[in-house]
What we know:
alpha/beta; Rossmann fold; 2 domains; 6-stranded mixed sheet; 6-stranded parallel sheet; 10 helices
Amino acid sequence: MDRYVVFGNPIAHSKSPVLHRLFAEQTGQAMQYDTLLAPLDDFTGCATAFFTQGRGANVTVPFKEQAYRFAHQLSARALRAGAVNTLSKLADGRVLGDNTDGAGLVRDLTVNAGFSLKGKRILILGAGGAVRGALEPILAQGPASVTIANRTVEKAEQLAELFSDLGPVAASGFDWLREPVDLIINATSASLAGEVPPIASSLIEPGNTLCYDMMYGKEPTPFCAWATEHRAGQVMDGLGMLAEQAAEAFYLWRGVRPDTAPALVQLRRLLAL
């Protein structure tokens, strides 16, 4: 049976096995999917050993940059992202590195939430790997503007420059912004610390602005709670992005696109336990 894993450290918390087992069942694919705790100092050795038999893998923190270096070939979106979250063994034995994170985010917004990004004013909070992975798919949708806001403005400026050939991208500090936008994406880790990035509530146009947190949890994240309090038009956490990036990886491996709706229901149920 074809073997797949998710590499990470720590990895016990991963929802990937639940998702991929549901997808396999739904699409009638015979495959095995497990977690694999890779040593922090030897991802390459661990991945090399797995791919002697294995067909594909997902990669999570802290190995996405190492997976980028491990892959023999990279997709265009992985090159742009500078990180890999999906590895796939090709017919000739070489390993292809791809990044489905940004595609998962865009699909969650455009398909699941029915929110078109075309002509929209978009604000992205944070300038780390998650943002770098999301910029190309977001800009491909033709937004009016994308502003990257970060505590360290230089990091935001570097990203804006890196992607300026794909569309209108600008950099900003958190406290420079006042005018309302159509979409705010929180890609900072503030929610993990129970905090909200220091931005003005005037960025939310009540009843219109969609606020999206890449984090998720049992309870609404601090950012989602803040957005609800300031009457955002729609508030979403990152569970849909998790399901959609997994579905995109599954499609790459198996050539079948699973339906994420039942998987999302199951994930919400598991989170509530």
